[in-house]
């Protein structure tokens, strides 16, 4: 049984939700009058241009509509409405890896966004509904670009800077994007790295939709310019007016697309709405991090992931907070960098991933002692289950034993937090995301749709829609309905399948146990094993391939590839060469984030008589577990023993 840590009393006194009674009261309100609950929130939180007609339209489930008929603009919610009370407050505090600092007030941010919005409209002809791909480093211009799109109703699609040219091209094509906004490059591990050459490579062929590239100069390294296609942001931006009227958007108009991996096929463009998304971004910022007017909030994610969207940009700005953005790696110039930044900026809420906590714990367990971290009030984690060891170090060494840890479970598809402690109310346990937020109807069910008893693993589902949920997969509504809503129904309505396993412990706390599908989580990055397999299968010498995840002490999961080669190829020298080639292929088609940790050349794969690869067996072998599964149904049962021998070699 894990120890329970009560919230800090002093903190609770001033928290927005002060105790479990208040939490339960909100939960009950949502249960008793579901639409009324969301209606109150939407009216209270959003500054509408025009009020909505209905709260929730379920007539075309699972294509739900929230707050239909309403008009708003997310940038008015994030910037415009704050100008009367917060115009000189810091909106973004940015720190470059090289130590350079920039502070951008709400008024300055408002003007920056307007200029860029005008530039997009006037110089690039971007209109409401057009898609714009952002391939940017962690610089304030990434936030300017997101908000400038939102201002004119364009749909942004951010591609994480770690993705390769091929991956970027796929996303530009799938979204049919008109424009790419990028940078020359930035700094990482003390050295400049480049983005623009990747864009050049991506747009070389097959991207006729995208005829223009806007380049932010950040590291001023030399790059090639394609005349008539490439434009320099730094030169053009000051020619534009700093006034721009926000485009009135329907509640359901898409705000952005964000591509993420599924268990099959190519990455899916997760489409988010305007009103529902911003409501939940703001609400969860307020309740889960409990940010106060003078607080400084820091989320260490990259804007290329959903965490960066919701908790670096949209959430903090919607509530009028000060958000910190950092360009580089946590280990430069040394492993104390983040703790130094917490001391220097007097960070009050700090939000990061278990993989980073484990890395910094391993590399510098005593490093935090050198810094004054007493400004911290709330610590957050996200992205994967956190092991109790890492949790305890975070709690004691970073939080000084006085800060609640909010272990927030959510997904690209959910838009914002779903299951999480509330820092002033929830008694926390290492490794548990605790309870669903009020209004979020989470259930753990078995294969037949029945609730699982305590202590038993099941599928984590959400049985009612919520405002910030994925609206569709861009260009593929069937895949959306099939991947998330399957056949399971509750009260005749479709149920959202998260793809995660979970269970209740003896106290009814929710423990997330990890993915139940063929998606793996490497350093908090989500990768589909099918996607990686497809890349490896492209190699001319590869006959068959199966990829599984295996536990990794720092990364959470590592990537383990089983490969059957064509013909004979067994000399060690050739194997090493093959390994290099395969990793090159991965780097080219996906990016460094998908580099293989283990490659095992095997004579065959364990398959059923119908030809289905038994991944469970491969997962067990990769973990180093003994095989307990029944292998008698395999086409060739001896293959398991043969693979085990190779692993133990
Ligand atoms: C998957 C979603 C949500 C932003 C970052 C990742 C895993 C996320 C937790 C947590 C255990 C977690 C799940 C989920 N996950 N948060 N607190 N505890 N697992 O977004 O790339 O969409 O990945 O991350 O497996 O399904 P994503």
The major pleated sheet works out as: 8 strands, mixed
Q: Say how many strands there are.
A: 32
Helix content: 25-40%
Instruction: Please identify the top-level CATH class of the domain at 518-648.
Output: Alpha Beta
The Cα radius of gyration reads: 24 Å
Q: Which consecutive residue ranges, at least 5 long each, have pLDDT under 50?
A: none
Tally of individual helices = 20
Strand order of the largest sheet: 12-11-8-6-7-14-15-23
Please, what is the average pLDDT?
A: 95
CATH fold-type name of the domain at 518-648: GMP Synthetase, Chain A, domain 3
Distance from first to last alpha carbon: 38 Å
Describe the global form. globular
Outline the secondary-structure elements:
Layout: H1 9-14, H2 20-32, H3 34-45, E1 56-57, E2 65-66, E3 71-72, H4 74-78, H5 83-86, E4 90-95, E5 101-105, H6 106-124, E6 131-135, H7 140-152, E7 155-158, H8 165-175, E8 179-183, E9 185-188, E10 191-194, H9 196-202, E11 212-216, E12 230-232, H10 233-236, E13 249-250, E14 254-260, E15 268-273, H11 275-289, E16 296-299, H12 306-318, E17 322-326, H13 337-345, E18 349-352, H14 354-363, E19 378-381, H15 388-398, E20 404-407, E21 442-445, E22 458-462, E23 472-473, H16 477-485, E24 489-490, E25 493-494, E26 496-504, E27 510-515, E28 519-522, E29 525-528, H17 529-537, E30 542-552, E31 556-565, H18 572-589, E32 598-601, H19 615-623, H20 638-647
Parallel strand pairs: 4-17, 6-7, 6-8, 7-14, 8-11, 11-12, 16-17, 16-18, 18-19, 19-20, 31-32
Antiparallel strand pairs: 1-2, 3-13, 4-5, 9-10, 14-15, 15-23, 21-22, 22-26, 24-25, 26-27, 28-29, 30-31
Helix pairs in contact: 2-3, 6-7, 8-9, 11-12, 14-15
The structure holds 5'-O-[(S)-butoxy(hydroxy)phosphoryl]adenosine.
């Amino acid at each position: 049984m894990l120890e329970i840590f009560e919230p800090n009393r002093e903190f609770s006194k001033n928290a927005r939700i002060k105790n479990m009674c208040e939490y339960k009261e909100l939960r009950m309100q949502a249960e008793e009058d579901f639409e009324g609950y969301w209606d109150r929130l939407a009216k209270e939180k959003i500054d509408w241009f025009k009020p909505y007609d209905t709260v929730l339209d379920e007539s075309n489930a699972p294509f739900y509509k929230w707050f239909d008929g309403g008009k708003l603009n997310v940038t008015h919610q994030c910037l415009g409405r704050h100008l009367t009370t917060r115009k000189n407050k810091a909106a973004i505090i940015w720190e470059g890896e090289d130590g350079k600092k920039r502070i951008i007030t709400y008024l300055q941010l408002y003007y920056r966004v307007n200029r860029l919005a005008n530039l997009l409209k006037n110089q690039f002809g971007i209109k409401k509904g057009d898609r714009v791909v952002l391939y940017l480093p962690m610089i304030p211009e990434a936030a300017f670009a997101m908000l400038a799109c939102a201002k004119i109703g364009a749909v942004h699609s951010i591609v994480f800077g770690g993705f390769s040219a091929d991956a970027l091209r796929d996303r530009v094509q799938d979204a049919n994007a008109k424009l790419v906004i990028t940078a020359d490059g930035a700094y990482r591990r003390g050295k400049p790295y480049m983005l623009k050459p990747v864009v050049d490579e991506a747009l070389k062929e097959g991207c006729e939709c995208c005829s223009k590239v806007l380049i932010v100069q950040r590291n001023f390294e030399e790059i090639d310019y394609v005349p008539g296609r490439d434009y320099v942001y730094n030169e053009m931006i000051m020619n534009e007016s700093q006034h721009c009227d926000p485009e009135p958007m329907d509640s359901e108009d898409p705000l952005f697309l964000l591509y993420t991996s599924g268990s099959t096929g190519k990455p899916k463009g997760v489409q988010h709405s305007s009103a529902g998304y911003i409501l939940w971004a703001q609400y969860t910022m307020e309740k889960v991090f409990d940010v106060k007017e003078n607080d400084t909030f820091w989320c260490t994610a990259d804007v290329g992931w959903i965490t960066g969207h919701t908790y670096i940009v949209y959430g903090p700005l919607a509530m009028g907070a000060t958000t910190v953005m950092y360009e580089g790696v946590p280990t430069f110039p040394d492993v104390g960098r983040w703790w130094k930044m917490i001391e220097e900026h007097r960070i009050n809420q700090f939000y990061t991933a278990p993989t980073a906590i484990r890395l910094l714990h391993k590399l510098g367990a005593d490093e935090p002692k050198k810094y004054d971290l007493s400004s911290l009030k709330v610590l957050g984690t996200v992205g994967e289950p956190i092991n109790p060891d890492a949790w305890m170090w975070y709690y004691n060494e970073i939080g000084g034993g006085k800060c609640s840890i909010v272990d927030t479970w959510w997904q690209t598809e959910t838009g914002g937090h779903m299951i999480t402690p509330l820092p002033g109310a929830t008694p926390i346990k290492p490794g548990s995301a605790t309870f669903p937020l009020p209004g979020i109807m989470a259930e753990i069910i078995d294969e037949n749709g029945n609730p699982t008893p305590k202590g038993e693993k099941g599928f984590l589902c959400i049985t009612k829609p919520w405002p910030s949920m994925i609206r569709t997969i861009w260009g593929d509504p069937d895949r959306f309905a099939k991947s998330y809503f399957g056949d399971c129904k509750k009260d005749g309505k479709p149920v959202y399948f998260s793809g995660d396993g979970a269970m209740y412990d003896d106290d009814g706390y929710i423990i997330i146990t990890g993915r139940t599908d063929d998606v793996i989580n490497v350093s908090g990055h989500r990768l589909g094993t099918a996607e990686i397999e497809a890349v490896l299968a492209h190699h001319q010498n590869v006959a068959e391939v199966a990829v599984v995840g295996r536990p990794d002490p720092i990364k959470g999961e590592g990537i383990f590839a089983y490969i059957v080669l064509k013909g004979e190829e067994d000399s060690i020298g050739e194997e090493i060469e093959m390994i290099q080639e395969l990793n090159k292929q991965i780097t080219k088609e996906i990016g460094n984030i998908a580099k293989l940790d283990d490659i095992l050349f095997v004579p065959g794969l364990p398959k059923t008589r119908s030809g289905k690869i038994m991944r469970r067996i491969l997962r067990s072998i990769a973990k180093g577990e003994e095989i307990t599964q029944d292998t008698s149904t395999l086409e060739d049962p001896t293959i398991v023993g043969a693979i085990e021998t190779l692993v133990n070699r």
